[in-house]
Amino acid sequence: MTAERLRFALIGTGRIGRVHAANIAANARTELAIVADPALGSADEVAARFGGKPARDPLSAIAPESVDAVVIASPTPTHIELITACIDQGVPVLSEKPIDLDMSRIDALRPRVRRASSPVAIGFNQRFDPAIAEVQRRVTAGEVGALEQLSITSRDPSPPPASYIGVSGGIFRDMTIHDFDLARFFAGEIEEVTAVGSTLFDAGAREHDDFDSVVVTLKARSGSIVTITNSRHSAYGYDQRIEAFGAGGLLNVENAPASHVTSSNATCAAAKAPYVGQFLDRYADAYANELDAFVEWVHHGASSSPTFEDGRAAQVLAEAAHLSSRAGRTVRIDEID
Ligand SMILES: NC(=O)c1ccc[n+]([C@@H]2O[C@H](COP(=O)([O-])OP(=O)(O)OC[C@H]3O[C@@H](n4cnc5c(N)ncnc54)[C@H](O)[C@@H]3O)[C@@H](O)[C@H]2O)c1
């Protein structure tokens, strides 16, 4: 790749697209060349704010003569077609997760990705959170000895709208997918999945036969045991914690406080504000670092970016969890993959 500053096409300018737009504009090694969204008003607004030419047709934005790389931040059902177009044009692509909700469509794309001459990265941004990345590095360096147990807690502040749940593919494919990727990031390949779900409070989840509360236990090939706890609500803010345990001790990623001010009065002592409100704030650094890693891959052919195979492997775990929770039994990965 030759350009000094990589010229990016951004496809999709919704919630996460705007985060990518801001990061591409702020990064000294990248610039926005094209901002594509069928909602032209949104593309116009983002282009005016962060640079690039607005466009309505996403496929026309994937043009190697005008762009060096593409970020896909459009709705999940569009990812496969856009990734395919990037591969066909030899343009490096960072696609938002998940690759798709349908495993057979992911598998149909797999041989093409294997033969691709250009990078295909998947946006598992949490790997790039400074605290998570540090704990993973220290675990890999052996600080707690062999990893015996990993606990991942992820609770959203409040459930998404029912209409979103209806198209999300369910909690495992939509929300737990990030934790499945982290499980592999820390513990390596997973052999067994046991998932339990319940619908305790969310009418949207009930309407769409989904869960709002799940616990998943994974057994890695190494023998490490991973526990994932998810809830679609949390009264005290966005709850994102990791605990890595081994014979040598414990490493923790704690929640980020929204403020360092504490308050004491007649009813509490040294009370803190709730944790940061949502993923865009909690993982702001992670999204910027994710872009940096992708740029490294484009420039130097090697990086820490999650690959298409990582995206697929997390999806396999989501399918296994779905089956396990519905069938009420442990699912071995080799049963379904
Ligand atoms: N990594 C993360 O933390 C994270 C967070 C949120 C969303 N996501 C993923 O990002 C994707 C987008 O989610 P969002 O919350 O930003 O959605 P959104 O609905 O806020 O935005 C989607 C945008 O894409 C546009 N769009 C619709 N059809 C399109 C098409 N065919 N081509 C191009 N653009 C199109 C829409 O007009 C809209 O502006 C989803 O796949 C989602 O799973 C990832």
Question: What would the keywords be for this entry?
Answer:
Rossmann fold, six-stranded parallel β-sheet, alpha/beta, 15 strands, globular, 13 helices, binds nicotinamide-adenine-dinucleotide, seven-stranded mixed β-sheet, 39% helix, oxidoreductase, oxidoreductase activity, NAD, Myo_inos_IolG
Describe this structure as you would to a colleague.
- The protein has helices at 15-26, 40-50, 79-89, 103-115, 130-140, 162-167, 171-174, 176-187, 203-207, 279-282, 284-300, 308-327, 333-336; strands spanning 6-11, 30-36, 53-55, 69-72, 93-96, 120-123, 147-155, 190-198, 213-220, 225-231, 239-246, 249-253, 262-263, 271-272, 331-332.
- It has 337 residues and is α/β, with parallel strands linked by helices.
- It folds into 2 domains: 6-118, Rossmann fold, CATH 3.40.50; 130-285 and 314-336, 2-Layer Sandwich (Dihydrodipicolinate Reductase, domain 2), CATH 3.30.360.
- Strands 12-11-7-10-9-8-15 form a 7-stranded mixed β-sheet. It has a 6-stranded parallel β-sheet with strand order 3-2-1-4-5-6, with helices on both faces. The chain has a two-stranded antiparallel sheet with strand order 13-14.
- Helix 2 links the parallel strand 2 (30-36) and strand 3 (53-55).
- The longest helix is centred in the C-terminal third of the chain and has 20 residues, at 308-327.
- The model has no long low-confidence stretch (mean pLDDT 96).
- Nicotinamide-adenine-dinucleotide binds at residues 11-17, 36-39, 42, 58, 73-76, 78, 96-97, 123, 125, 279.
- Nicotinamide-adenine-dinucleotide is lined by residues 11-17, 36-39, 42, 58, 73-76, 78, 96-97, 123, 125, 279.
